[in-house]
Design brief:
Blueprint: H1 44-66, H2 70-96, E1 101-102, H3 104-117, H4 122-134, H5 149-153, H6 163-171, H7 175-178, H8 181-210, H9 214-237, H10 258-263, H11 270-275, H12 292-303, E2 306-307, H13 314-324, H14 341-345
Antiparallel strand pairs: 1-2
Length: 364
Amino acid sequence: MPPNSRDTPTGVLFESDVETVDGGLSKDVTTLKTTDGSRLQLVWFNIVLFVILHSASLYGVWLLLAEATWTTFLLFIPAVVTTILGVSGGAHRLWAHRTFKANTPLKLIFLFLNTLAFQDAVYFWARDHRVHHKFTETDGDPYNSQRGWFFSHIGWLCCRKHPEVVERGKQIDLSDLESDPLVMFQKKYYLLLMPIICFVLPTALPMYLWGESLNVSFHVMALLRWSTSLNLIWLVNSSAHMFGMKPYDKNICPVDQGFLIACRVGEGYHNYHHVFPWDYKSAELGKYSQDVTTKFIDFFAYLGWAYDLKSVPLDLVRRRAERTGDGSHPVWGWGDKDQLKEDIGGTTITHQRKARHYPDTQNT
């Protein structure tokens, strides 16, 4: 039987965890991905709530298309994206991975959006996510993809945690979160703040601001918005660990997932993220880092509210991809046969030498 996460970490979490010069582990993690296959105790309360949520959300889809005002229809997608920012930019990139730092006003914005997303308090979300990276694809991983797509998508929330998840969660260092008074405030008052921010405000504001009906406001801007954001983020745990390419490390399960990349919300370049989880972009520079979450952070960095943004040098990315990638990375340098014409045309070349013009001597 292969060793499991009880003995050996299977992934990196911070820069201090790396064991090779290109940011990896020195062990063969392919032998460590496992599950004992034990049956976990179902939590029927959660199961019933998820059935009700998704049923009501389907009704919300009909209302969005048939009865909602144009204002609600046009603002629905921005509302979903804004909700996801609270997890992708806040709980994930800021607090779980410490990829950048934020001043107090920006932390308050992220905490508000994270509460709007209702995926548990930052403290617990970051703890589980750190365990996921440290012991990915083992029974110590809360959403272990070795148990199948459904489990890693939503099933893990429908049953009791595997004992090893609980054990590993107690061992993860959370001192940085515990020393953050804003994070601990949210943790303490989460059950009071969450219903107001996630359900009451999204229902009341459309009714007050543009005269939307109670029925549409509740089912579309509260329930459908919430369930849509949940499932998009859950796809990072499920599909982004199964269906896609592995340009940076072919030995791990996380992949660069095409659908999530196309959504441009963030986290689609999941193979990259598990290789370099301390990069604030969760992707390379250039066209790879054009998602909304990265732009959101960049905007506040411009204002000075976000700072100390960590980014992996392209040379390190190249060396890692050449050593462990599956060969699917499209472009490595100028003149590559797969380099897009728009990338060539949009490139600025400075300090060019002027072409020399010689007289035509053939006709003299």
